[in-house]
Amino acid sequence: MIKIPGFRSGKMWKKIVAIFGYLMIASVVSTAVNGGESNNSSPITASIKQERQTTDTKTKTPELEKDTASTTIIQGQKLKISYIDVGQADSILIQIPNGKNVLIDAGNNEDADRIISYIKKQGISKLDIIIGTHPHEDHIGALDTVINSFDIEQVIMPKKDSTTQTFKDVITAIQSKGLKITEARAGVKLNLGSEVNALLIAPNSINYDDINNYSAVLKLSYGSNTFLFTGDASEQSENEIINAEFNLKSDVLKVGHHGSNTASSNAFLNKVQPKYAIISVGKGNTYGHPANITIDDLTNIGAKIYRTDLSGTIIAESDGTNITINNIATEIEPRAPAVVAPVTTPTVTTTVTPKQTPQDVTVYITKSGAKYHSDGCRYLSKSRIPISLSKAKTSYSPCSVCNPPR
Amino acid sequence: MKEIRGIIDRFEGDFAVVEFEGRVMKDIPRSNMVSEVKEGDVIFLVDGIYYVDVEETLGRKNEIAKLMENMWE
């Protein structure tokens, strides 16, 4: 027989009252043990709090860097990325070998037909994820029409308003489809299957003065090939990405903000080390995009530059090991008057692989030195800036230690 | 008389990209606007200069905020 208060008499109602009483005492004790935390503080909510805290204080979050896990390569199938020519705007279609599709941005208001017909031509009826990098019209212009024209699984956008009708129409379109929006912020992983790793690495803060800095920045990898999509992120966001120690190295860089001088800082480009740089920009735009300095910096870092204002839609394909860039001679978007490009054979696809003729061998210079060097020279330990041989020869002399090509 | 009104979508260098009725976008030099204009402002044209309609800007901001409510998860 139990001889504790509440159970001595054997009466049922007393037992019930006692059980409640003991439960309350137990909960008070457990709260005290947990250091004052409320007693529903499960490990899960605790870890969320922890993550917020680290994000707020902008300290390193090693959790966010796990974008290096290996991906499953599907033999004979290619990842295809189309940097659609939408003039002075962005719209990028990513087709993953497992059949999933992602659209980053949807050009200007006037680009709806162009984007939709391009996507449909690929035989696509469903977009698994659409990303509106930030709420400017040259990125979300046709997003409402896209949402109304395809099956959409997930919408990702930064939580930032705009007062334009364009923005209002986008939100209304999302609402009418019964969809919610996933907030774009650094650390969000895109669920696209084991074939690719896709991680947002910006925005890293909650508030910015410059709306471009709200841009969702995506790092995508397939096999050993890597791609970076920067929206219009300016130098402030670039610095935050660097400070958060994300792995930035990418084979193909979608150059930030149409090649404007507000983006693509040297510090950022040094981390990315792009082999190919794609600039989505309108021919004859009023804003002077791309900036000369951006072109110079990309050239100096050794990137091969492709521009939608000169080439039309640009397509990058990856088998997980090699990347080929095709610039199909599509007609160039309005706000982008006709080019005098060789469009005599419009259906021919040119595969451009970087070939090195003796004239355009890459050599290296340093920040302060007057000599140019071969890769691996001991003078390159502190600073190593790639430059073409022909360009190097105009202002530098060959190093006498490593004896580079002349 | 119908006033010319627009909303500032963004700034690009010396230009403001303005959304007019029917989502028609135009580049307007910033020199044709009062200096305090910000992205998101509703503006109206008087004698070649664009001014901010403070009240309508606020009204639109509130309207959009309401529309955005509970949309992000």
Describe the protein in words.
- The complex is a heterodimer of chains A (406) and B (73).
- Chain A has 406 residues and is of the alpha/beta class.
- Chain A folds into two domains: 47-325, Metallo-beta-lactamase, Chain A; 358-398, no CATH class.
- Chain A is 26% helix and 20% strand.
- Chain A contains eleven helices and 19 strands.
- Chain B has 73 residues and is of the alpha+beta class.
- Chain B is 21% helix and 40% strand.
- Chain B has one helix at residues 54-68; strands at 5-12, 15-20, 24-29, 42-46, 49-52.
- Chain B starts with a strand and ends in a 5-residue tail after the last helix.
- Chains A and B meet through helix 6 and strand 6 of A and strand 1, strand 2, strand 3 and helix 1 of B.
| SSE run of chain A | HHEEEHEHHEHEEEEHEHEHEHEEEEEEHE
Radius of gyration of chain A: 27 Å
Count of extended strands of chain B: 5
Q: What best-fitting shape of chain A do the alpha-carbon axes yield?
A: globular
User: Ranges of chain B with pLDDT <50 over ≥5 residues?
Assistant: none
> Biggest β-sheet of chain A, characterized?
9 strands, mixed
The first-to-last residue Cα distance of chain A is: 101 Å
The portion of residues forming beta strands of chain A comes to 15-25%
Strand order of the largest sheet of chain A: 6-5-4-3-2-1-13-14-15
